[in-house]
Amino acid sequence: MAKHKVHYEFPMHCLSEILYEYLATAEGLSEWFADDVTEKGDDFFFSWGGDPAEKATLIRYKPEGFVRFRWEEDEGTKNFFEMTITIDDITEDLALNITDFCEEGDENENAMYWENLIENLRIKLGAA
Question: Per the confidence metrics, is the pTM higher than 0.70?
Answer without folding.
Answer: yes
